[in-house]
Structures are given as C-alpha cells and as structure tokens.
Amino acid sequence: MKQAYPSLIIFCILFILNTLTAVIYNLCNEIWLMMPIRLGAALINGAGVTLLMVLAIHYIHKLFHINLTKIVLFIAYFFFAIESFLLLNFYSLITPSIIMVTIETNHSEASEFFASYFDIHTCMVLFSILIVGILLFYYYKKLLNIPLPAWLHKKAILIPTCTLTLLIYVGLTYYITHIRHMTSYQALTGIERVWHSSQNAIHDRAEYSKYLQLVKQDAPVLISNSSEVPYVIIILGESLSKLHMDAYGYQLPTTPKLSQQIKDNKTLKFDSVKTSRTVTSESIRQIMTFFDDKSAAPWYQYHTLPAVMKQAGYYTCWLSNQDSFTAGDDNSTAGIASTSDCVRFPHQRHASEERYGYFDGELLTLLDQELRKPHEKAFFCLHLMGSHRRYTNRYPTEFNKFSINDIAKDISNEKKRTIAEYDNSVLYNDFVCDQIIQRFQNKDAIVFSFPDHGEEVYDTRNMCGHGLYNPSSPMQEIPFLIWTSEMFKRKHPNIVEQMKNATNKPFNTANIIHTIMDICGIQTKDYEIQKSLLFN
Predict the structure, then answer these.
(1) What is the SS3 string spanning 250-279?
(2) What would the pLDDT profile of 431-454 be if each residue is shown by its tens digit?
C-alpha cells in the first residue's frame, strides 16, 4: 500500500540540496584515501541537519499553524545555487575567505567580477538551476503527494532511524568541534557554511584591522645605509625538520636539489640553528621584527624587517601560500606582512579551511611577475605552506615518491604512512626552493632558507606535529641554509668568507634581522651587530 508522506518528501528534497554541493566538492578535490571519511562526514552531517530542519518545520506548523516549508526550501535552494556557481568558477564552497572577499569588494570590483565570470557557460548552468527551482516550487504540492511505501512511515522504523541519525550527527559534531577543535567546511550543509563563514569572517576581519593598526607604522630612522646587495630573499618554510632531510643525514633522498647545491659549494649548511618559537605566529614576530625574548615592549612596538628594507631603498614584497585570513593572534603575521610594499597570495583562504591542491609552486608565478618589474634593489619574503599538516595536502601526485615500504621503523603502518607523506612534502619543498633559487642565478643575490619552526614526526616522541609548550628537539633545531649567486661571491667575498666561518656557530632565527642588516650595511637604533650571525 502506497500513500503520500509529505515530511519524507521534504526530507529527501532538503537532503539533496544540503549535501549535493559538498559531495561534488569532495569528489572533485579530495584524495582517494580520505574520500570515504569526507563523504561519510558530509552525508551524516547533511542527514542530521536536514532531520532537524524537517522536525522544526513539522512542530512549528503543528504548534503555531505556521507553514515554513516553502521558506526553508527557498533558502536551501538559494544557497545551493550560489555554491553551484562557486564550484563552477572557483572550485570552492562558501567559506570565510569567500565571505571576506565579498565584504571587501567595492562597486567597481563587483562590476569587473560579473563581467569576468558570468559567461555563456555559467549563465546556462545557472539558468538551468533557476528553471529547476521554478519547477520545484510550481509542482510543490504534487511533489508532496508522491506515493511512498507505507513501511517508510512506520514508527517501528521511523523513530529508531531518526534517533540513530541524530545520535551519530551529535557525536560527529561534538568530535569535530570539541575534540578536534575545527570547522570541517567540506562536511557542512550550505546553510551551516554561510553561518560559520560569516561569523568567522566578521570576527577575523575586526582582528585583522586591529593588528594592522597595532603594527608600528612610522618609518624606521636609518643611522647608516651602505647597502650594495641588490637582491635579498628569505624563503620562510613551514614545519620543516632537519631530521627528515638527507642534506642533514636522513636515510631517504628527500632533498636531492639541496644536497647537490651543498656539494657544489653553492649553498652553505648551518648545523646549530634554533627557532625562536615553535608556533608560526610567535616565531614570525621574532624573525621579522627587532622583538625577542629579552624585549621590554610588545612585539608590535618594534619595526619590521620589511619596513627597514623599504626605508633602505628596497622594493619589499611578501609572497605567501599561507592563509590570507587567520584567527586571533595569528593575524600578527598579516600585520607584519602589511609593512611590505606588496603582499600577494595565490589564493584567498581562511585558516579554518582545508583543501588539497594549493601547492607552494604557485608562488613561482607570482615571483616571476614581480621580477619583471624594474627595481634597483628588492627584498622578497616567500612564506611557504611547506610541510604543514595534513602533509598529504602539501605536494602534487608526481611527488608521491615515498611509501610505508621506505620507512624503516618498527611502528604501525598508519604512522609509517604519515612519515612517508611528510617525507614527500619535504621532497616537494626541496623542488620549490630550488626553483626559487633558479630565478636569482644571474643576479647579485643572497637567499636565506629556513622554516619558522621544526616538526616532530615520531622521531623522539610518539606524536607528529609541533606545539609551543615543552617542545621536542626536532621542533626547535631547524635547518638553516644560505645560497649565494656567483655574482654575489665575486662582489662580496668577505661576506661569503664570514658566512663560511659561521656554519657551526650557535644561532637563533630571532637574530636574522640583525644578520641581514649586517650583510647589507644598514643600521637603526635597534640594530645590534653582536647578534649577527657574522659577528665574531
């Protein structure tokens, strides 16, 4: 016996609208190993949210005689249409970075945006979605009267199914938000993504503005400036462990380009360098300003390295594959970067977003564009995503060289897989750094390459990652490398000799600002020559 059950029909329609874009996104963007987890989370979350929406519609109608069905369907369909457009043009769902960009777009930019993206193909797809939406609402009553098997509405089946769905949904939500402390945008429904994205974007935009105002804005006063090095470059890596680099003795060939450079005497390897801090934001505050552990004032009351280099006549450029929008104190990096003449990202991305495919190699295009500009002197900081977790998100498939079979440790296969993925990220990092260096082969240039901090990858502890408190030695002791072009060697032999003599000298990256100023012949009131790597 078949009959109509409107609530079930509404559930089915809403479930499709709530989950389809997330399913398409994960199928198109996620690696196969994570696909079951991502799709499972999206379907469970979609079912839980849809069930709550249907129950709300049902009981509001029952108690207050207000029928919200059409309104809820319209909202769900509206966000489905928006995300269809985003998937079609940007391969993205609604995220904080999408909201942030929308907030900051002016009328002129909006006009250019519509002219650029509303082509024939896009318009046809959106027109088709519009037609389907019109048909959906036009035949609304007929849809609700579609006959379904009677057993679908039996309490003996319906109540346990709904209860189990809600329990699994609540459990998954609690695990993600309270245990993992994250927002999994790939698993949310469109309505949830709009809510969370808007909340994050509004809050973090305020935090971002605060840090831009906090960072010392007045230009540093130079006591002397005899800079004769036209190109100074910092490759600022992420979560790079020297214990996983064959240039530092690792058993797997994870840094073939670097090892060859060292062998050919093109790159100097330093063996006794430590990071200032073992989390990114706090590390960069010390790397990129005069602030250190002994400073009396807050970090933002000190001038930044980009500001000093700008005052010394350098064009300063910050190219980053890290998050363009971050939360809380992490916005300090954005504040520091803002003191550069130019700040560019390959992608607009919020820290809470996670996506496979944003690789550091995309910075090369931005670097090439900047190098085509005529500048007598230039300072570049390239902030890589490096080996930040999830490691498998940090390299394209062609760098998937190492596997569990290459890891000679008596640990579980799951841990071996994590180590192999990390090693692959190091291999890709080696390639990207080499490509950056190639851009400066024929210039009078010096390149400093080091990470913000290291990473524990089951080397001294049963864990992988990094943290601020009680850090392990792999988190603190980092690789530090200096490459110089042949032209630099010819023009600055004394500096090269001083650097060679300092390869075993204990050094902290909090003093890199003093080292660069020493090499370039720049002095301010905060400059201390005894903190330079070259000082004897």
Answers:
(1) CCCCCCHHHHHHHHCCCEEEECCEECCCCC
(2) 999 999 999 999 999 999 999 999
DSSP 8-state class, residue 309: H
Question: Is residue 395 a contact partner of residue 356, using CB atoms and an 8 Å limit?
Answer: no
What angle is formed at CA 457 by the lines to CA 452 and CA 458, rounded to 5 degrees? 145
**Distance in angstroms between the alpha carbons of the first and the last residue of the chain:** 92
Cα distance between residue 17 and residue 11, in whole Å: 10
CB 362 within 8 A of CB 356: no
Residues forming a β-bridge with 149:
2
CA distance 476 to 453: 6
CB contact at 8 A, 94 and 197: yes
Asked whether the beta carbons of 79 and 19 are under 8 A apart, the reply is no
Say if residues 295 and 208 touch (Cβ distance below 8 Å).
Answer: no
Supply 214's token pair.
């906090």
As given in the structure block, the two tokens for residue 278 are 């073992």
pLDDT digits (tens, 9 = 90+) for 412-426: 999 999 999 999 999
- Lookup: tokens for 112: 């250019």
3-state secondary structure of 19: helix
- Please tell me the distance from the alpha carbon of residue 166 to that of residue 517, in angstroms, as a whole number: 60
The type of residue at 245 is: M
The neighbouring-strand residues paired with 3 are 148
Distance (Å, whole) CA 503 – CA 272? 8
pLDDT in tens, 311-331: 999 999 999 998 765 554 457
- Please compute the mean of the pLDDT values over residues 478-496 and round it to a whole number: 97
3 state DSSP class of 349: coil
Dig out the tokens for 431 from the structure. 């390639």
Under 8 Å between Cβ of 453 and 478 = yes
Q: Which residues pair with 224 in a beta bridge?
A: 523
Which of 336, 322, 376, 380 is closest to 516 using CA atoms? Answer: 380
pTM summary value: 0.75
Beta bridge partners of 315: 378
Nearest to residue 75, comparing CAs of 131, 18, 118?
18
